[in-house]
Write a structure and sequence with these properties.
426 residues, 16 strands, eight-stranded mixed sheet, alpha+beta
Length: 426
Amino acid sequence: MLADAKANMGKEVEFSGCVHRIKNMGSIAFIVVRTSRDVIQTVYSADNCKDSIEGLREGFFVNVKGIVKENPKDFNGLEIELDSIKLISTNAAELPLKISQGRLNCTIEVNLDNRAASLRNPYERAIFKLQEGLVQGMHKFMQANNFTEIHSPKIVAQGAEGGANIFRLDYFGKSAFLNQSPQFYKQMAVAFFDRVYEIAPVYRAEKHATSRHINEYIGLDFEMGYIDSMYDVMKMEIAMLKSIFEYIKENYQNELKILDADVPEIKEVPSIKFADAIELLRGGEGSGKKFDLDPEDEVNLGKYAKEKYDSDFIFVTHFPSSKPPFYAMNSREDPREAYKFDLLFRGLEITSGGQRIHDYNEQVEKMKAQGLDPADFKNYLEAHKYGLPPHGGLGIGLERLLMKLLNKNNIRETSLFPRDINRLLP
């Protein structure tokens, strides 16, 4: 690792990697070696190195040994003066992309079609190393705050969100689905763990071909019991995001530098009721017919939050109670509203959450009000029947969070191997 090299200045080190770039200057050659996280410059000269580099090409895998020397002009501030370079493995074909340049000079479709090659580019690779940082940051925060990690099934008998946007499959002659959310299992687990979280794939069979939708994504979910209101959940999310951002700034500086990432400083996050947001955006025109935010609304609310509060985030709360999900608790002040919220980050919804219904009879009545048959949710309702504490939670889309953190225009850029209506490979 680069850190090991920095810790051994003036000493000999040995490591293996891939030849990322070769610059032959005649008497000497600069051979940049790509390791699992870094690119490290090595310097070859026939006088110092006992091995020949004749025939060496980009993409070959090598073992190198040499002395660490300071080089203020290099990106890393050092280079390795080679004593030996041994060939480990060669390639059978040239790479279809010039991966040794700073950023790939190709379309997103070419990038995604050639993922086995494109992800070798340090910039592309850094995106997903930083994605790891977001996940690790959540793990650290959740466990420090007494959340238990769970792993819920992804093959289920019914969808948590309802509707048609669900993948169906044959399960040994029975109808089954790919889970849209760990929601049911999170709520059940609150009864015996109090606080739970899960980081896992989520499946939505939405026929969208937009820059903000994919059909398989990673959900960052948590659920917490013994809350007083949905605002407890909102406070927990902001504390978590602050902690995650601090974690990546401390542990992923190299990737943040490569990606020129704009990590926000979270102070106070403004909140606006859904009805007030629609009034703000549209005035009285058509505001009574709106049940959700469209992409343009989200963008404009993001601008509003930045201009008025200097915030990259804004909560939208109290969505209409007639709109799914059926497990959202109706407002005690106004039953036309539900204790449900979204969190927007730089003009894009990254979170949906709220307070859930914990009372059995109340949950049955809301199911009926939304045209659902409670008998279809027998196992889910058992958790309510046997008793649940007041609870709430949320789900964050990992790829969307990373997309806005890096100010990308397409969610596919922050998905390692994206799945959408047109893409099932690689």
